[in-house]
């Protein structure tokens, strides 16, 4: 279980989350002419009566190395159901950018791009040029599953609608109610050490500080090796504590951007807010007193896992401890929710949008039947499609046990030297990617383990009401983001770390603000505000 869950963690951490026929008469006309709706059944299977051949360019993650998508259980099964035969042009991640750009630059387009890591900038650019088809009407008519999800969660449509009003892609989604997965890594505290210290689960930032200090003094590991708080990245701690200090109030998808608490019509670059400074002061105090692992800025995952397995940590932000460290170590941990901060803020803001990536499927102007292609993709936004994509075929890759889908024994316990992921990759292609919608019912990793589900239930009442997806921008706005925006965000991250470690004194805060303003903060703020205004109107 440890091996299979760690593999999926790595997938979620390292999968890129890149966030595109104009909206005029020509674009709408082209969509209608090219739809090919006459050869498409409105519901059920097959999708088309006459076999349809499609060529799809696909990112084939390294975890799928060795399998042939043109002859594998999932796509063979789906071909037989739909009467659509996909010729997969799958490329490895290290060759993805070069091959994708070559296809786009040469004009020799496939019928569609699948999980090709097309940025929002690319989606808008090639969409406005007519290389990618607008999908608004096609989704309305041929994607009932996706349409229902968008109606239930309006942020999905907002996330994939571009400034010209068009939708150029069908997204990868996480089920809105699958909170445990959307939380990703979450906070844990060593309850055995709490009991030894006769302390309760921390509920405030003050409680957390006192616990960390007591752990350092107790030093249960001995020889000063005890680490009161450890993690793989300081950003995890910053994001968790954001809800205790009143920043990042709509999630982390838009870097350093949230809603102005004094004017809900305005966005705020919160990395210049007083509340953000107060949070950095608190984290600096923890670091300066040796309550945070002093190697947290450089530690590798392997070293972190080794430390955790040696039971060195009093608290952490990570994934399911039992699944990762085993019962003996992992069962010592209990989950934390949001801590109440010094000014009464207490919300859990470290939550991903339900839109994992916007560019799951992009249909090009070369496609002979866009309507059928939209229906082909839409199946994976429903229960049956999600089951097929993530579990496979009943009786071959999974069984139903007590009403739940469970991988077959030859996958859970493969013979010889074959790993769990290698067993999956013989029949399925989801490893290394999320496609369609991922649902708790069809996922057997650590996020559905009892400890993780209990943690999600504890956190749920404190979760913010709306998590913004990544906003979309015009070409000119993207130019500013890729120059001024990147420079400012890089500077803010560097200064964040320096303020925390003490390499830069927080007494120099005014100088920090002045530098950001001189770098072009006013122009960047205008870009963000325009994007937010469009987001609200979508």
Automatic annotation (TrEMBL):
The keyword Aminoacyl-tRNA synthetase does not apply. Residues 1-20 form the signal peptide. InterPro entries: Bact_solute-bd_prot1 (IPR050490), SBP (IPR006059). Keywords: Lipoprotein, Signal. Pfam families: SBP_bac_1. The keyword Lipoprotein applies. This is Lipoprotein LipO. It comes from Oceanobacillus oncorhynchi. The lineage of its organism: Bacteria, Bacillati, Bacillota, Bacilli, Bacillales. The gene is lipO_1.
